[in-house]
Protein: GNAT superfamily N-acetyltransferase
Organism: Nonomuraea roseoviolacea subsp. carminata
Amino acid sequence: MTILDDLTLARLHDAYLQAFADQPGPLFGRRRFQWMFTHGSPGQRQEIRVVEEDGELVGCYRLRFPEYDNTHIAWLDPLFVRPDRRGRGLGTRLLDEAAERVRVNGRSLLFVETPTEGSGARFAVAHGFTVSVAEARRTLDLRTADWAGFQRMLPQVEGYAVELWTGPTAPERLADLGAVMAGMNDAPTDASMEHAHFDTERVRAHEEQIVPGGLDCYTAMARRVSDGAPAGFTRIFLDAERQDGWALQTDTAVLRPHRGHRLGLLLKLANLLCMREREPQLERVITWNARSNAHMLAINEAMGFELLDEWNTWRLPL
């Protein structure tokens, strides 16, 4: 696998920007990209292969191997070839090599994500991938959003309180954050996926990577007032350097015993309003959802999120 020094990382980021220049939505800034390719995520190993031709960096893949759970899978995240070097079989050679590395690492299932249209989808189909989960990206334009309307939409949920914070989670909240993160196991996913377990140390490791990984975040957590039980959460991440105007709405979950109170809408609106107050320069929020997740889609559409594009998670048994 490739050793990535600072110069190679900078060239790799430039090649990545060229490869995905025609893709709508945000791309990773250099600081975040370099952290991903040098540190990855807690509880995951990664292997990276960079290809150079005639002194130019022309292609790359990154494999992620989960180690906490789902140790039968690997993620190809990403594989790309610079546009001026496509059509010569390099992508196929990279995929073949990546698939062999997946087998060598004892994994039997490879996943990758692409838009449903375009060269990535055609490449996936041509190489035997099938659709695992159909997804969509939606965006909310913060410059034209109905902020007064959001205030009016805030549901009054009796018996629950919302806590808001920015940045990494404080130690005293880690166990509760892990408890509500487990609610994401109910989201649509591949039938072969095991449930993820979010113990305190796993959550702590993720939180400790937020700042050095070039990110900041806004979090909202709901608690039942009567006993303090954590009930649900939502998070928005953004580039720590605030360079591109984008924010990323990530996980939202409400635990089963607490559903039916409109906590999902309350959490997302409260977190968005908090972020808007502190980050008036932000322009857009982007979010991913499985197209079968009707409940979350209804919340997003009520808030004014509009469809940007559709994606697939593809699977390839090995």
